[in-house]
Amino acid sequence: MSVKERIQQIVSGHPIVLFMKGTPQFPMCGFSSRAAEALRDCGATFHSVNVLADPEIRAQLPRYSDWPTFPQLFINGELIGGCDITVELHEQGELQRMVAEATRGG
């Protein structure tokens, strides 16, 4: 299976996926930490991928998503964005709505 296929499988296999540096419990950069915190604040159950532990995904995800930096948040298979967009959506109350829709299958 190619790296692109692995990424596709991860993104399509979970309603909410955060590709980040580190883990939600032990983030390895401030941006990843803030994105994970915004999701937790919304009560989101999300799948995380530590790109530092998987160099192939770290190298290929920016090509897959056409987004150069980490973290990267996907909801229902769609790239939402990075830290700034995630935090902004959270502050506007939009992230909570998106999370609720994703987790109830809407």
UniProtKB/TrEMBL annotation:
PROSITE patterns: GLUTAREDOXIN_2. SUPFAM superfamilies: Thioredoxin-like (SSF52833). Residues 16-80 form the Glutaredoxin domain. InterPro entries: Glutaredoxin, GRX_PICOT-like, Monothiol_GRX, Monothiol_GRX-rel, Thioredoxin-like_sf. It holds the Pfam family Glutaredoxin. Keywords: 2Fe-2S, Iron, Iron-sulfur, Metal-binding, Redox-active center. Gene3D superfamilies: Glutaredoxin (3.40.30.10). Belongs to the glutaredoxin family. Monothiol subfamily. This is Glutaredoxin. It comes from Pseudomarimonas salicorniae. The gene is grxD.
